[in-house]
Every structure is written in C-alpha cells, then in structure tokens.
Amino acid sequence: MKINGKHQRTVWLGQDGWSVEILDQTKLPFDVQVISLTSMEQAAKAIKDMWVRGAPLIGAVAAYGIALGMKEDASDEHLQKCYDVLIDTRPTAINLKWALDRVFAELKHKSAEDRQTIAYQLAAHIADEDVQLCESIGENGLEIIKQIASNKPEGSTVNILTHCNAGWLATVDWGTAISPIYKAHEAGIKVHVWVDETRPRNQGLLTAFELGSHGVPHTLIADNVGGHLMQHGEVDLCIVGTDRTTAKGDVCNKIGTYLKALAAHDNKVPFYVALPSPTIDWTVYDGVKEIPIEQRSGEEQSHVYGIDPSGKLSWVNTAPKGTECGNYAFDVTPAKYVTGFITERGVCEATESALSAMFADLKAPEIA
C-alpha cells in the first residue's frame, strides 16, 4: 500500500540482497523508521518485541529469519536452533508456526550448501503469496460491502467497525479485514470506518494511519463505544482479522474482539472475520480451552506512547504507582457469534463443515 503516496510493503530485502528490512511499527503512526535485520536473533527480537505484528506478517518475517540464520550457519544443528528460537517468540498467532514448519520441512532434506538460497526463495514466495491471499480476501469482501450498499438509500455511506489493525501493516500488503474496505473505496462506494483504539497497544492508531494515507473516511473511537453505535444503527457491519481460527470456526483475535461480537449479535449487525487459510489451525477444535493466550508486560497497559505538548515523542505512565496490570493480548470469539469468514477462496459460514469443504486440500498440512 502507500505511505506519503509511495507504495510500500512491510518486509523486503535490502539493497545488499540479503538483509531484511521492516518498518518499525513501535514508532508508528508518529514516525516512519526502517530497521535492517541482519541476523536470525534480530528477526526473533523483531517479532517478540512487536517491531512487526499481525499474524501473516509475523509468519513472513519468521521465514526470512530462518533465511538469515542459514546465511550465518547452514548446519542441521543451527537450522534446528533457528526454528526453536523463532517458534518461541509469540505463542498465539498460528501463522508463525505455519511458516516455520513450511520452511523447516523444505530445508531439512537439503544440503547445507543449498539451504541459504532455498530459504531466501521460499521466504520471498511466502511474502508474495500473502499479498495474493490478502488481495483475494479484499475482492471477496467487496461483494459483501456492495450488497449492503445496494440495500441502503442511494448515496448512503456504509459504516464499518473494525478492531485492532488488520490492514497492510499486519500483513505484507493489502491486509485482511481492511482489504475489502480498500477495494470498496477504490470502487467508488462510500465507506466510513469506525476504528477502535484497541488498548493497550493502541493498534487502532495504525489503522487510522493507513486509512488516512489512502483517503478513506474514518473516526477513531474508544474501545467501549462500539456497542453504543450498534444500538443506534450507526454500524452496518463489523470486519475483524484473526490470529488463529480453530477447525470448528472459533476465532482468536486481539483482546476485545469477543465483546464486539457479542454487541453485534445482540444488535443483529453482521460480524465477519477476514480469514487467510494459513491462519486456520486444524489441530485445535475448542478455541477457549485449547488456544494459548499470550500475556504481555504490564507496562504496555500502564504506559502510553505519544507526542507531548512540546512535540517530543515519549512514554507516559498512566497507572498509580505499584498497580499490578494484567495484559491479556487476545481473546476467543466462539464460532456461533461469527456471521461468516471472508477467505481468499470466497465467503463461507463459520462452521466446521463449511471450513472443511472450502479447504479440504489443506486439512492435513505437512508438519515438521
């Protein structure tokens, strides 16, 4: 997508042909900085410390992390170390394991001399594939927005609520939940986006940054406003992303998604999840019982990053001294509250049978 009118992906190779460059998302939306990753350990830190975030992007950077590792040492022992270090960075987003399993399975039977070249090729393929998946999700989700627009008075605006950031900054390009919105905007459909701030890390600011860069009308709101807007008919549909979806259709996404789904259900507002197939975990059935929920540092909750009155970027502590903070990063929305999945292959119901039918060829992926 674009920053200051220039097309930009979230991960790409440096001019030297081997270093991996990313946008430092801890500095956005206030400052655009590029970080050059030159080692597997640095790639792991980028994922763990959320220099990059979003399940699809995490997977792509992890694949490049192994490529960097193979440049350092292509032995069997180091390949296993790279896998072990990277898989331990983020426990919830399944794309991380999906990408690492895919690269590991390809490399383990190759010679050490060939591993570096193959790893870089496969990482680039995973990144390009993600772009294609996300654009297809956009095209399929566009049809839903078109249908809603056709049922409203001519010239009316379609109001869409989203939670967290599932735009191009969470993927390699286009995004998942935001991709249909970009497509609708480009098609000339009048859309307006209610952007949840998404505490504690305020990823909604990233969504606002994206939408603003593309001229899409939007309003940043506090996380607890969504239900009120739905009660008053100000939301036509909700679209969110997912970090892991179970075989029966339960959705694990950024904390607060479950509450939005409950409000949408109570107010009969369609609640869609943009679902790229690598985010399906076929080995998990009951999301509430089985998906590990990442708990992050309490400082993410007690401190806010922003611009002070002097124009300086700084962290501000908002919690009383000595207060213990519980920082649960994700929650699970049961499938019964999901209207449907917007996938790269089309739209389907949030049921085990519908997922199995749409992705029958993927139900038994190769595991390293």
From TrEMBL:
GO function terms (MF aspect): S-methyl-5-thioribose-1-phosphate isomerase activity
InterPro entries linked to this entry: IF-2B-related (IPR000649), IF-M1Pi (IPR005251), IF_2B-like_C (IPR042529), Initiation_fac_2B_a/b/d (IPR011559), M1Pi_N (IPR027363), NagB/RpiA_transferase-like (IPR037171)
Annotated positions for site Transition state stabilizer: C164
Pathway it works in: Amino-acid biosynthesis; L-methionine biosynthesis via salvage pathway; L-methionine from S-methyl-5-thio-alpha-D-ribose 1-phosphate: step 1/6
Catalytic activity: 5-(methylsulfanyl)-alpha-D-ribose 1-phosphate = 5-(methylsulfanyl)-D-ribulose 1-phosphate
EC number in record: 5.3.1.23
Catalytic residues in the record: D243 (proton donor)
UniProt function note: Catalyzes the interconversion of methylthioribose-1-phosphate (MTR-1-P) into methylthioribulose-1-phosphate (MTRu-1-P).
Entry similarity comment: Belongs to the EIF-2B alpha/beta/delta subunits family. MtnA subfamily.
Protein name per the record: Methylthioribose-1-phosphate isomerase
Species assigned in the record: Vibrio diazotrophicus
